[in-house]
Design goal:
CATH architecture: 3-Layer(aba) Sandwich
Largest sheet: 10 strands, mixed
Strand content: 15-25%
Structural class: alpha/beta
Number of domains: 1
Number of strands: 10
Mean pLDDT: 76
Distance between the termini: 17 Å
CATH class: Alpha Beta
CATH topology: Rossmann fold
Number of helices: 8
Length: about 280
């Protein structure tokens, strides 16, 4: 299912626009960015299909300047508490790493120096258990995990577009996500309260974990609000659309874990995370 939010102002169809993916509806509301098209509540093949449609819509006058992965993530690095803000250097995709755009990432970090870097791991199923998180951290060296960034990274590389990953830790590395929270991860990116309550009635001992997760999620929301401000500032200041310009070095370093020296060119006009 999911949701697609189009920019409110279409007066300048040739202006750079940003294609943003969030796993949950509340993340899209936190961003509230008129200059962006936001895909939310989509996972797996449905997300791939929506990204493909957005990037290859022949009837659209958009020129996407880049792709953005935005939302909460599960912690893998034990040193990162809930609310930690991540502006990633790379995304671990299967047996390779795809680099985020170095200039764009640096611009966001300049606007938000408290954000940390590192690799974000992408998975197709929630990384809910502490043991699974530890194994993923050991295998990839990633500091966090989500369910969208790896698909965004692969699409961006295929389209020759830059991308960035801006995430905030919701559940820290040592804490599992209780079954009720997983059940509440609705197919449209919303919260399925009926499923949450049913799981809690079946296993009331989850209540303490849910309360702790709610506190952690509140810290993550605060981090996301700060990331949203920094992200918009990095993309709106004069001269900061430089990663949308043409350049022969487009995609340099992709798949190596090292950012390219030249920003990828935008295409010609056409066109969940650990819950």
């Amino acid at each position: 299912m999911g949701h697609v939010s189009e920019p409110a102002n279409r007066a300048d169809a040739a202006a750079p626009r940003w294609l943003v993916v969030t796993g949950m509806a509340f993340e899209a509301r936190l961003l509230d960015w008129p200059g962006a098209t936001i895909l939310s509540g989509l996972r797996g093949d449905a997300l791939d299909a929506a990204l493909t449609a957005a990037l290859h819509d022949k009837g659209s006058q958009h020129r996407y300047a880049g792709l953005i992965s935005f939302g909460v993530a599960g912690g893998l690095d034990p040193a990162l508490p809930p609310g930690s803000m991540i502006v990633a250097d790379a995304v671990a995709v299967a047996d390779r790493c795809l680099s985020t755009d170095a200039r764009w990432t640096d611009a966001i970090r300049m606007a938000l120096p408290s954000a940390v870097g590192g690799t974000v791991a992408g998975v197709d199923a929630p990384a809910a258990a502490g043991a699974g998180k530890r194994a993923l951290h050991a295998a990839t060296g990633a500091v966090a995990v989500d369910m969208e960034s790896h698909r965004i990274a692969a699409m961006a590389q295929a389209a020759g577009l830059p991308f960035v990953v801006c995430r905030a830790i919701a559940d820290p590395a040592a804490r599992r996500v209780p079954p009720a929270a997983l059940a509440a991860f609705g197919p449209d990116g919303g919260i399925a309260m009926r499923a949450l309550c049913a799981s809690l009635l079946k296993q009331p001992s989850q209540l303490g974990e849910l309360v702790r997760l709610a506190r952690d999620a509140a810290a993550a929301r605060r981090g996301l609000r700060r990331l949203a401000i920094a992200l918009r500032r990095s993309a709106s200041e004069p001269g900061d659309h430089r990663w949308a310009g043409a350049g022969a070095g487009a995609g340099a370093g992709a798949g190596t874990g090292v950012g390219g020296d030249s920003p990828p060119a935008a295409p010609s006009p056409s066109s969940p995370s650990s819950p």
